[in-house]
Write a structure and sequence with these properties.
A nine-stranded mixed β-sheet has the order 3-2-1-4-5-6-11-9-10, sandwiched between helices. By secondary structure, it is of the alpha/beta class. The protein is globular and about 55 Å long. The N terminus is likely disordered. It has one domain: Inosine-uridine Nucleoside N-ribohydrolase, Chain A (Alpha-Beta Complex). The longest helix has 17 residues.
């Protein structure tokens, strides 16, 4: 933009000279440059963790905010990867660790899916889902008290606390206060967003955009052969939100399966020239695999999908999506092997009106990993002057 403005001034001077303009004309001030584009305002709706995909996105968002590229209005936590209480504890430590606890508030959201309860989940698992056996919070006991929580490797937050306003009210209030400005990064189950829009439908036309990491459109799922984890965890919430008349972008397994973290990229983050807390936590979370038995440190050929981080990269630069399709997306909510299954229709099917949305199919991996490495290796705590 700056280069274009300079060229415009030079062109105007040449025209004046050619037309024999007066000295006063030649020294007239140049027109004011157009105003800069507004910084995106985002809500991160997340089943938060320390330094797996949600935690990595938290670091990237905080660094982009410090660089003036976006404004994080808050993090609304939901059960998914972990039960709500553990996710909130990890989110609070994350913003405190990054030095942005006073800039990025954390809100407590929904602990339970709308209708995907324990009995239903156990029944579906018993059928043999044919996936990767990852069930998130359902894979372990729910922490009922603070004594049941697992501390992050660098300890619990010491002075950062969750907001008293609920995540649902936070979403509603923030959208109303910033009409047509709020972009929601929906990187977990959609329970919070479903509750906010159902209780206060007047906010639906005021939401600027939702960008999801969720669904498996033309590829198999991961938690089940049919369904991707985020939308499987609360299929009814996914269906309700996807059917809302809001501009929507889906970053599904279709593309995340093609953006793979490899050992050379891992090493740039886990073993940088100047190691810090993010490097240490990244190595701990990713270096030995999610199972804790293997990973980059044991197997240099190991790879792992990039999931949530693609949403914030797309927000920051939509041209990173090198192939997209427009589809009408819906989610199956019938209990059984297809629960949470996403379908992307090319044309509007008969039945309920579905929303046409953008499906990301391919990414510019090289450019993405440049951004990914850069943001995850910037100094932490983030300097106050940033």
């Amino acid at each position: 933009m700056k280069r274009r403005a300079v060229l415009g001034v030079l062109a105007g001077t040449v025209v004046l000279a050619a037309c024999g303009g007066t000295d006063d004309d030649a020294t007239a001030p140049a027109p004011a440059p157009p105003p800069a584009a507004a910084v995106p305002k985002i809500i991160i709706d997340s089943d938060y963790n320390t330094m797996s995909d949600d935690g990595q996105l938290g670091v990237m968002a905080a660094q982009l905010q410090a660089a003036g590229k976006l404004q994080v209005m808050g993090i609304s936590v939901v059960s998914g990867n972990q039960w709500l209480k553990q996710g909130v504890a990890d989110a609070l430590k994350s913003v405190e660790r990054l030095g942005v606890g006073d800039k990025i508030p954390v809100y407590i959201g929904a602990n339970n899916a709308l209708n995907h309860d324990k009995a239903t989940v156990e029944g579906e698992i018993a059928l043999g889902l044919g996936g990767d056996d990852y069930y998130g919070a359902w894979g372990g006991p729910e922490p009922l008290t603070d004594a049941d929580l697992v501390a992050p490797p660098d300890g619990f937050a010491l002075y950062t606390t969750a907001q008293s306003t609920s995540a649902v009210d936070f979403i509603v209030d923030t959208v109303k206060a910033n009409p047509n400005e709020i972009i929601i990064l929906a990187i977990g189950p959609l329970t919070n967003i479903a509750q906010a829009t159902a209780r206060n439908p007047e906010i639906v036309p005021l939401i600027k955009q939702i960008i999801y990491m969720g669904g498996a459109i033309d590829v198999p799922g991961n938690t089940s052969a049919a369904a991707e984890f985020n939308w499987w965890f609360d299929p009814l919430a996914a269906r309700q939100v996807l059917r809302l008349p809001i501009p929507q972008v889906v970053v599904p397994l279709d593309v995340t399966n093609t953006v793979l973290l490899t050992k050379p990229v891992y090493d740039q983050i886990a073993h940088p020239a100047k190691p810090g807390i993010v490097a240490a936590l990244f190595e701990r979370a990713i270096g030995h695999g999610f199972s804790g038995t293997h990973g980059f440190e044991e197997d240099p050929s190991f790879t792992i999908n990039i999931w949530d981080s693609l949403t914030i990269a797309y927000l920051n630069d939509p041209t990173l999506a090198t192939e997209t399709e427009e589809r009408y997306v819906d989610v199956d909510t019938a209990v059984g092997l297809n629960d949470g299954h996403a379908t992307g229709y090319v044309t509007q099917p008969a039945g309920p009106t579905l929303q046409k949305m953008t499906i990301v199919k391919k990414f510019d991996n090289d450019r993405f990993f440049e951004l990914y490495v850069d943001l995850l290796t910037r100094p932490v705590p983030i300097p106050a002057s940033s």
